[in-house]
Write a structure and sequence with these properties.
Chains: A alpha/beta (408), B mainly alpha (364), C mainly alpha (326)
CATH class of the largest domain in chain B: Mainly Alpha
Strand content of chain C: under 5%
Helix content of chain B: 55-70%
Strand content of chain B: under 5%
Largest sheet of chain C: none
Structural class of chain B: mainly alpha
Number of helices of chain C: 13
Number of domains of chain B: 2
CATH architecture of the largest domain in chain B: Orthogonal Bundle
CATH topology of the largest domain in chain C: MetI-like fold
Radius of gyration of chain B: 25 Å
Shape of chain C: globular
Radius of gyration of chain C: 24 Å
CATH superfamily of the largest domain in chain B: MetI-like
Oligomer: heterotrimer
Largest interface: B-C, 87 and 107 residues
Distance between the termini of chain B: 37 Å
CATH architecture of the largest domain in chain C: Orthogonal Bundle
Chain lengths: 408, 364, 326
């Protein structure tokens, strides 16, 4: 059984138009219709290129998962896409695609790994069956034996003995289940794997192992990853570029190293100081005061202003657009559109020093082992990721399962 | 409370069941005749509704309406007593079992499980059969006896909920400061179980109506003691449904009364259930609303709806009318039962440790 | 199979409880009503038969209560449920044996149909949530709340009396046919069974539908259903993934519901004068035939326990988590 045959791209995430896998512009997602509708994602722009690891960061309730599920049209009702465009490879309009077209695209091109693998695997089916079902659906010509062999190879690829194919999910450990999910995601050599907090439910050691394996697989198979996490400093370690979301809006977009060294939005700055970075200089752990806004009534102006220590009058009245910072003096050449939605960055104001750090200068600080992809064998740091300084949101995304579900 | 009253199920349920309770109280006072009185001793044919007898007469010219009102009092009294007694038993068994754990739990759960699988109606028939039809029936006693066979389901639900409560912080802290067990159960746990207790009560009232009606229909309870079941017994005895000229006025009113009273209680139960478990309530977009908003089709799992270009969100919202927060679907709860058929479900007050419907043995 | 073993344990205990309750009820009742009945038959029966009855009901007997209890168990274990008072000297066992096939045929078939139909409707209603099907469900509540026998009376009135589509009563045309394995008899039996069966299905299908729908809705919120969609599996397969899981609590609920369904079905038989256990029951009640009444109670209990056990096996087959040894 031949492993992935996709050729390895040597280049850094390219900029050529042909390399764009997903292009999202002006996407708006609501929960519900009418006056009471919650605007979960507002006017989001996103580009995911071939082979790239794109991190999507934000507190829970910031709309990051909503955005990812909306792009794939997997968002549950009452989630509703109200405006914008989302295209796959510049040829397929994801928002106009019918059921049949989407079905062909799913898993073939875009696979998904969810946070809790216990719930993501069907408890009453053997894991082998759950891997082969997707092969049978998308490769109807493949024989039964070939599918079995492929499933076994996939399991071994993620370090699980093939004889586990006959096991049920409850017979595997949490880490193993998550590996099964990853193996399953790679079954059809997808171009894109969307990972929604894939390691959050795991312990630190397992988390690190899995991230390491994942990055190694990514190097080998060259799929792009949309990695959703509330842990910005984890994203800094593994992502090529990062988009930060707050209250349904994209507030900053930059490549990973740039955002780590020189955040341009006060929220990104706050997120970075909410988690201890394992590499690089120690920063003061500060967190962000206050809690994310209730999406049913976001504050006027910049929705972050009540928690922002730099806020001034304009922030309270006018929502800032996403300022393109590519032309800014410190921008790295070729980096995909660096931007921040903050009035401080409109080019007319004096920017506080911590939001105006140079992107490439060392400024006397030790250079962190960055960016992006770890070399094989290099430990990818994992860490427990509670959200100690980032309080829980007021309103959970209505589309996600709330607690108290045990309705028999 | 106000939120509860916004649910149409709760409102309709309250009106329906409330109306029957009011009828049970005032009914016999306003009844035009005595339920036993025959207006004629010569005619042996039931008379259809007329000005003198709004719901017609029985074979022996008794007034059906008066019987319905008299029978309603007995039926509703029995069912309320059954509900109350069974709920007390359910709380005692369920909360104790859930809180005590260990052997105490094993024993209490086993008792509940035995009562759960023991077929209730045949057992009651034997009991009432030996009490004898000659005995002068007492509605409170009948209700209490019915309750003995009807508490186990509620106990099981309460046990599952108590188990999940037991692990909560506030119970832990009460334990740590040395509160007595019964105080923790009564003052810390029980108040949080109110919705479950309420559904359990409604459930057993429905059970009580159905069971009492069935027992009187079978004739194991004195046939001169008027209840809706007794009315149906006499109608069936006279083959009212088999006559060429259907004597519908005789058997439809009592049967409809049982059904409507039960429906009212069931709707209340659904309403509480949806209040407690919003997942059943948030039905998303109904087809009609989606169409009015300009969506090409009803949103579904795995095919997120996209508002077509040209239809702005504001226009869609205007077309859709009510605010999204008030969207309601036809969600119907799992907790619902009649003596005729029960699909037990649960009212869930918070994340349960275990799925309350699964057999205990299954929840590993 | 530990789960099955535990369930069997529960059923054995339940059976013991049922037999014990059956033994004690007549003895606990004030002024033992059996006495009057024994007096009623005393004139015509042999001393031996009277003695057996006296022993069974614990009146005027020299044997102590413990001895009576042991004797009762001995009788039960030998399959001896006593002698019917009304159809003397027929044994209770023989009367039940004659009626049982009718009930099992009717109630068993109707229950299976109702479960399958209700489950399917529930699946569709959950999948097509928000469609017109949502409005049908509250209407179904009425059929669930109304007693089975009322639905039966309505069915007789409408479909048999008014429209004349089905016979009004009986299990077959007793006036013209003799039971036998010939087409005339079999088709006549089927003809008589359709309306009672439809009644039982109509009265019980709402419960399964509502239960399955709510379970499906809960299950469809699970991540594995979303993943099945994300995998691009055919719609049929996604539904079956969800349904397979949603079915589990419904099967578990089966064991709780079966007692009610059997009871309701017996009442339906009475309305149709169907020659099953239900009809036997009403004659026993009408004639104070206590041994027959108690025999019927035991038989129904055993049947319900057996149905429970079958449901447990189905459950274990469907859920791998119960199949494994811990």
């Amino acid at each position: 059984m031949s492993m992935a045959s996709t050729e390895r791209s040597e280049a850094t995430p390219g900029t050529a138009a042909g390399d764009v896998l997903i292009e999202v512009s002006g996407l708006c997602v609501d929960y519900g219709l009418g006056e009471g509708a919650v605007h979960a994602v507002v006017d989001a722009d996103l580009v995911l290129r071939r082979g790239e690891v794109l991190g999507l960061a934000g507190e829970s309730g910031s709309g990051k998962s909503t955005l990812a599920y909306a792009i794939t049209r997997l968002l549950r009702p009452p989630g509703l896409i109200t405006a914008g465009r989302a295209r796959f490879r510049q040829s397929v309009d994801l928002l106009a695609a019918g059921e049949q077209e989407l079905r062909g695209l799913r898993w073939n091109e875009i696979a998904v790994v969810l946070q809790s693998s216990m719930n993501a695997l069907n408890p009453v089916l053997r894991i082998g069956r759950q891997i082969t079902d997707v092969l049978r659906a998308h490769r109807p010509d493949s024989g039964r034996g070939a599918r079995q062999a492929r499933a076994a190879a996939l399991l071994e690829m993620v370090g699980i003995p093939a004889d586990r194919l006959g096991n049920y999910p409850h017979e595997l450990s949490g880490g193993m289940r998550q590996r099964v999910m990853i193996a399953m995601a790679l079954a059809l050599d997808p171009k894109i794997v969307i990972m929604d907090e894939p390691t959050t439910a795991l312990d630190v050691v397992t988390q690190r192992e899995i991230l390491e394996e994942l990055m190694a697989l990514r190097d080998r198979l060259d799929f792009a990853v949309l990695f959703i996490s509330h842990d910005l400093s984890l994203l800094v370690e593994i992502a090529d570029s990062i988009a930060v979301m707050y209250a349904g809006r994209l507030v900053e977009r930059a490549d990973a190293a740039a955002i780590f060294r020189a955040p341009r939005h006060p929220y990104s700055l706050g997120l970075l100081s909410s988690f201890p970075p394992l590499h690089g200089p120690h920063r003061q752990m500060e967190g962000i005061p206050g809690s994310p806004p209730d999406l049913r009534g976001t504050p006027a102006g910049c929705s972050f202003h009540p928690r922002c220590r730099y806020a001034f009058d304009k922030c309270r009245t006018d929502p800032p657009p996403l300022f393109d910072l590519d032309g800014a003096p410190n921008a790295r050449g070729g980096a995909p559109g660096r931007a921040a939605a903050c009035w401080l960055q409109d080019g007319t104001r004096a920017v506080p020093a911590e939001l105006a750090r140079p992107e490439s200068g060392t400024a006397g600080r030790p250079e962190p082992a960055l960016p992006g992809r770890p070399e094989p064998g290099r430990a990818v740091p994992g860490r427990p990721v509670p959200e100690p300084v980032v309080p829980e949101p007021v309103v959970p995304e209505p589309g996600t399962a709330g607690p108290g579900g045990g309705q028999p | 409370m106000r939120k509860l009253l916004r649910s149409p199920k709760i409102v309709i349920g309250l009106c329906l069941s409330g109306a029957f309770v009011v009828l049970a109280i005032v009914g016999p006072l306003v009844a035009p005749y005595s339920p036993n009185a025959s207006s004629s001793t010569t005619s042996g044919t039931p008379m259809p509704p007329s000005a003198a007898h709004w719901l017609g007469t029985t074979q022996v010219q008794q007034d059906v309406l008066s019987q319905l009102l008299a029978g309603g009092r007995s039926t509703i009294l029995v069912s309320l007593v059954a509900g109350a007694v069974a709920t007390v038993l359910a709380v005692l068994f369920g909360v104790s079992a859930g809180y005590l754990g260990g052997y105490g739990d094993d024993l209490l759960s086993m008792v509940a499980n035995v009562f759960l699988v023991l077929p209730a109606l045949p057992l009651l028939i034997v009991i009432f059969g030996f009490i004898g039809r000659g005995a002068n029936p007492n509605d409170v006693l009948i209700g209490a006896i019915i309750a003995i066979t009807g508490w186990a389901f509620g106990a099981r639900q309460l046990r599952a909920q108590t188990l999940s409560m037991r692990a909560r912080d506030f119970v832990d802290s009460a334990r740590i400061i040395g509160e007595r067990k019964w105080r923790i159960m009564a003052f810390e746990i029980l108040p949080n179980l109110v919705p479950v207790v309420a559904t359990s009560f409604l459930f057993t009232v429905i059970y009580g109506v159905g069971t009492y009606t069935a027992l009187s229909f079978l004739g194991v309870i004195s046939l001169s003691h008027w209840s809706w079941g007794t009315m149906l017994y006499w109608a069936q005895n006279a083959q009212a449904a088999q006559q060429v000229r259907l004597e519908w006025w005789w058997f439809v009113p009592p049967g409809l009364a049982v059904g409507l009273f039960g429906t009212g209680l069931a709707l209340l139960n659904f309403g509480i259930d949806e209040y407690v478990n919003p997942r059943l309530r948030a039905a998303g977009l109904t087809g009609r609303r989606a169409r009015r908003a300009g969506l090409p089709r009803r949103p579904r799992l795995g095919l997120t709806a996209v508002l077509p270009a040209g239809v702005t969100a504001a226009a869609a919202a205007a077309a859709a009318g009510r605010p999204a927060a008030a969207m309601d679907g036809g969600a119907v709860s799992a907790v619902s039962a009649t003596a005729g058929g029960v699909i037990p479900g649960s009212a869930v007050a918070g994340p349960p440790v275990t799925d309350p419907v699964l057999p205990d043995e299954v929840q590993q | 199979m530990r789960m099955i073993a535990r369930r069997i344990g529960l059923y054995v205990i339940t059976a013991i409880v049922a037999i014990t309750v059956n033994f004690f009820i007549p003895r606990l009742m004030p002024g033992n009503p059996a006495l009057a009945v024994i007096g009623r038959v005393q004139a015509s029966e042999s001393t031996q038969a009277i003695n057996a009855l006296e022993l069974q009901y614990g009146v005027q007997t020299k044997t102590g209560i413990w001895g009576q209890y042991v004797h009762y168990w001995n009788q039960i274990l030998h399959g001896n449920l006593g002698t019917s008072l009304n159809s003397y000297p027929a044994s209770v066992g023989s009367l039940i044996r004659a009626a049982l096939p009718w009930t099992i045929g009717l109630v068993g078939t109707a229950t299976v149909i109702s479960f399958i139909l209700g489950t399917l409707i529930g699946i569709i209603a959950a999948w097509r949530r928000g469609s017109w099907l949502d409005n049908v469900l509250p209407a179904m509540t009425f059929f669930q709340a109304a007693p089975y026998f009322f639905v039966a009376i309505l069915a007789v009135a409408l479909f048999a009396t008014k429209l004349g589509w089905f016979p009004q009563s009986l299990g077959y045309d007793t006036a013209t046919l003799n039971p036998g394995l010939n087409w005339a008899f079999i088709s006549n039996v089927l003809d008589h069974a359709v309306l009672p069966a439809l009644t039982i299905v109509l009265a019980s299908v709402a419960g399964w539908t509502i239960g399955m729908r709510n379970m499906m809705i809960t299950t469809m919120d699970e991540d594995y259903v979303l993943i099945a969609q994300a995998k691009g599996l055919p719609k049929r397969q996604v539904i079956s993934y969800a349904a397979r899981n949603a079915l589990l609590p419904n099967v578990a609920g089966f064991s709780l519901a079966i007692g009610f369904i059997v009871s309701g079905a017996l009442l339906t038989e009475i309305v149709f004068s169907y020659p099953g256990i239900g009809y036997l029951l009403i004659t026993a009640i009408g004639s104070d035939d206590y041994p027959l009444l108690q025999g019927i109670f035991l038989i129904i209990t055993f049947a319900v326990l057996l149905a429970n056990l079958l449901a447990d096996f189905v459950y274990a087959f469907l859920d791998p988590r119960t199949r494994q040894e811990a």
